[in-house]
Specification:
3 strands; 38% helix; elongated
Length: 119
């Protein structure tokens, strides 16, 4: 009888009613320290925790800094801190908007009852 080459490269059973044997599982023979990495030392954990706390504090300071200006990649002026996304306009657009400052203030005054404020 010729050997049967199946999914697991096992020989076919001699008897059709015979059970297929389960393939043997070869476990990792590497040392446990390689298979399961050891835990960090307490002083390393403390140092990492302090580093993350300092980074957190720095990020909070920059977030509450208020309004900031930046030149965008495409050459526009971006105003950060007004909302979730920056407001970016080109120089001519900012000039036109700033020339309308009095009109914008009077419009806000006239429509104060229907305009909402962000708290």
């Amino acid at each position: 009888m010729t050997p049967y080459v199946g999914r697991m490269n096992r020989a076919a059973p001699q008897d059709a009613s015979a059970e297929w044997s389960r393939p043997r599982i070869e476990w990792c023979r590497l040392p446990r320290t390689i298979c399961y990495p050891s835990r960090m030392a307490d002083d390393d954990v403390t140092a990492e925790l302090e580093r993350l706390r300092a980074e957190n504090a720095r990020l909070k300071r920059t977030a509450t800094r208020g309004v900031s200006l930046k030149v965008s990649e495409k050459g526009g002026l971006s105003v950060y801190g007004l909302g979730r996304f920056p407001v970016t306009l080109y120089k001519e657009q900012w000039t036109k908007l700033l020339d309308m400052a009095d009109d914008i203030r009077s419009f806000i005054r006239d429509n104060d009852a229907s305009l909402k404020t962000k708290s």
